[in-house]
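Protocol step 6 of 9: fold each sequence in the batch and record its structure tokens directly after the sequence line. For illustration, a two-sequence batch is reproduced in full.

Sequence one:
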Amino acid sequence: MTHAARAVWDRGDYGPLADLLAPGATVLADTAAPTRADRVLDLAAGHGAVAEIVARRGTPVTAVDVSPVMVAAGRARTADLPVTWLEADLAAVPLDDDAADVALSNFGLIFTVEAAPALAEVRRLLRPGGTLAYTAWDPEGVVGRMGAVMAEFMPAPPDGAPKRFHGSVWTTGEALRDAGFTDVTVTGRTLPWRFDSPADLTTFFRHHSPAHMASEVAAGERAADMFAAIGRVFAPDGGAVDVEASYVVVTARA
């Protein structure tokens, strides 16, 4: 699974998409509010937006991502900060039990292929009473609807990609409770997405979103139709894209 996941997440120039999602990292850091004494994990860290914010506030962070391309970019981004990077599958992180007090993930944990083993691993890594906080797309919001549209054009998810990109398994709390978490809270938020046209939006995805790149390959000759359908989700009238992409901040206690 690790090799297949790397093949997905090593694609494209992720930096602009990381910037688009960065406000969620600030929300996570503010929500969890780790102290300087806390041991913090940034899971599916990407370019390390969460790690950077927490580390700049004085708390060391261990950032974990499956993609060597992401890890290299994250190391460069946080070179002057107390951030340690690990290249690892989230279902098998090479750290001891109870290694962390706080685990954070900004639109990353939700892309694991299977929720249960990933959450079991996070539960193992957190000390009893430790905090998990992550962001996830609202299945009923514009990004969630986009995920449903994409699924219609793919005979099966590409290797290493989740079975549904933005499934409700991450927003209901049931999977967390099954994995041994308590005190689950779900808070709605939005991110502003602005593009001059649907074509500009889909071009952005095709260059900067590894998930969309993998889906384009899986869709094959239907890829153009898929991206046209994505454009209609965001701008049904074909005009400028001006949406509030709804997501949730989920917190739970180990």
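Sequence two, same batch, same settings:
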Amino acid sequence: MDIYRTLASYGERYRLQVVPEPGEGWIAADRLLDHRSPELAAVLDAERVASGQVSAHATALTVMAVYAGTVTAAALLSWALHGRWPDLRPGNVLVLPGEEHGFDGVAVRREEVESGDVDDLVEQIVHGHLEPLAAAMHLATKASLHQLRGGITHGCAAAFSAARAADVEQRERAHKAFVAACPPEYAALGELVRLREGEREGLFYLRESCCLYYTAEHGGLCASCCLTSRDDRLAAYREVLRSRA
């Protein structure tokens, strides 16, 4: 099975380009783990300009959620469905900051595939990539580690909830195993709920922390935002299910 081509079939979020060396605009992900690096400053500045954020810490919180839900999401979805995943360790990843909110591209230097159990996945993606990035952004902007981790859990949950309806049960089991293998505080940062409307079923995330995207000039409340009541979020998600083709 060609994991890279299979992932692209699930949507643009999971498409990984192959860029052996950084070209114009591309940033090596391992450089983002240094809180003093100009590369981290460039990613934060791109989001600040694009979304109109007014503070450094709010910018970092927004970047963290987008990063986890875009850059490393392909590894989580691939593991959940196939038990194998693309090598998305920082040294193999390049990102292209977008002129609008988020990233315009995610690339790998080498099309390598990893395999193992959930602990191996968490070691590589959470402990080896997302947690060090959160620590760097905490030092660079003073953003709360608790809220940054909320962005991690939100972004990771997106990988388990945004695939085809036929995989719901498998992805739900995988998410439970993933959270159980993560740092213990992750479980309290949100909840993945399984909803059904008629013949349609899906997984949706309810956050217990806020990324402050609503404070940005061009931002707003995320669908999963804890500033919206649980009942209202569930009603909105049910409407998403009803409207799906």
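Proceed to step 7 once all outputs are recorded. Observation for sequence two: Helices lie at 3-8, 38-51, 56-70, 73-82, 118-141, 145-161, 168-181, 230-243.
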